[in-house]
Amino acid sequence: MTSPQQINNLQAAFQDALNMSGSPGVVSTSPTTSFMNTLPPRTSVAKQAKALKPFSTGDIKILLLENVNQTAIDIFDKQGYQVEFHKSSLGPEELIEKIRDVHAIGIRSKTKLTPEILKHAKNLVCIGCFCIGTNQVDLDYAAKMGVSVFNSPFSNSRSVAELVIGEIISLARQLGDRSIEMHTGTWNKVSHHCWEVRGKTLGIIGYGHIGSQLSVLAEAFGMHVLYYDVVTIMALGTAKQVATLDELLNNSDFVSLHVPATDETKNMISAPQLAAMRNGAYLINASRGTVVDIPSLIQAMKAGKIAGAALDVFPHEPAKNGSGAFGNQLSPWISDLVSLPNIILTPHIGGSTEEAQSAIGVEVATSLSKYINDGTSVGSVNFPEVSLRSLDLDQENTVRVLYIHQNVPGVLKTVNNILSDHNIEKQFSDSSGDIAYLMADISNVNYSDIKDIYDKLNATEYKISIRLLY
Ligand SMILES: NC(=O)c1ccc[n+]([C@@H]2O[C@H](COP(=O)([O-])OP(=O)(O)OC[C@H]3O[C@@H](n4cnc5c(N)ncnc54)[C@H](O)[C@@H]3O)[C@@H](O)[C@H]2O)c1
Fold first, then answer.
1. What is the whole-number distance in angstroms between the Cα of residue 212 and the centre of ligand 1?
2. Average pLDDT value for residue range 345-361
């Protein structure tokens, strides 16, 4: 039996070895007990999970830019990580200087992580995009460096669904027009063609995260809900899935789009679909700008076929805020669009709420912490998604091997040969394009073996990066 003093000595010796190698990002620390308490266990087993903890998590350095939400800072602080926070983005030179030795960087949309920047990151393990999009990061380059990228695609679903509910009522009551009139001194008290939403039918196209939230909210207002989706999805409440898009369009008073931008959804609502809608129906698009053919919508509204529309997204959107940014220089039909009555135009704000920002902070910081602490890459956008169940508290002398490698034949044979002196308790490997990721828990490992295992894995031909957690 190893005494606590012996363990301390072994840990100190191993720490020395690491310091000599000068690469704290390669063999890294694992979770603190406090972290395990803040996260749901990966299995439903009631047993307490073992916190993998060879060193202080205080070695982990996180650089947060662009005023990432406080919820993220709180999660990283709880881990004991060293957090450097900046309200804005950094210029290229300062970014290169700062990224050099951090283990994780958190950004929003302004910071561009190009190969020219990323190549300077010597210890980087993961990147957090505290937003929906990830095209500000060169994902392939990051993957080839063994750097996993996370984002938060669904934290703002509720915000979008609530905006759409607001728009349904606003369109039915011509609220936008009445408000503009009052701002210009006109009193125009009308009830003609103004409706309650109770008893009307809402047709939802795309019954995913947002569409299904919207379904629940709409029913609470007494609406009937139909939905159309390429996948068969269980209805919430008394909503009904319909078999074809036309069936939905023929039978809905309000149609709201919640599909992704794909080749199939490009101009999904164009002249024939608008013609298939009920006379005097309303159209709402808070999904992606390519989904509605806006010139056809303008025609249908001018003809009185469509009584109102709300658009939050456009095929071309301005890069930044400012007066005059939304004009014909983006698309030639914009002046026509803005002159229509009963049309609500918003600058892609569907998901822009304080609550969504705070939820994004929690989701991305949690993903980064789980990846740093136990290697779980679930939710990564550029990496194979791999996870192993936690170790039990009573599992001593177990090491978790995290081995990122090029996706070529024969690598697993080489790695398993290296690990074969120990009992491989569990392992999971997956690949995505050129990159593969192996997670393995091996038992019967003495601390003195760890450096040996690391050196052997490090010498393998197709290795990209290695971390050992214990
Ligand atoms: N306006 C905003 O600020 C804002 C914010 C968040 C998301 N969005 C956008 O909203 C859309 C929906 O987001 P989500 O989180 O609900 O996505 P999701 O992936 O959860 O749901 C999309 C649904 O659309 C279905 N679908 C895909 N192709 C389809 C097709 N051709 N026909 C019918 N159904 C189809 C899918 O099966 C899925 O159920 C996305 O385009 C997203 O980019 C906009």
1. 10
2. 96
pLDDT band at 469 (very low <50, low <70, confident <90, very high): confident
The pair of structure tokens assigned to 237 is 């409440």
Find all residues with CB under 8 Å of 185, minimum gap 6, and list them.
none
pTM of the model: 0.81
Going from the N-terminus, what domains does the chain have, and what CATH number goes with each?
61-151+357-374 (3.40.50.720), 157-345 (3.40.50.720), 384-469 (3.30.70.260)
User: From the CB of 307, is ligand 1 less than 6 Å away?
Assistant: no
Contact 339, 313 (CB under 8 A): no
Residue with CA at minimum distance from ligand 1 atom 38: 208
Determine the 3-state secondary structure of 32 from DSSP.
Answer: coil
How many angstroms separate the alpha carbon of residue 257 from the centre of ligand 1?
8
24 — pLDDT class (breaks 50, 70, 90): very low
- pLDDT number for residue 3: 37
In this structure, what is the dihedral angle of CA atoms 62, 407, 434, 401, given to the nearest 10 degrees?
A: -10
Nearest-CA residue for atom 10 of ligand 1: 287
Integer Cα distance of 104 and 99 in angstroms? 8
CB 53 within 8 A of CB 30: yes
Catalytic residues: 288, 317, 348
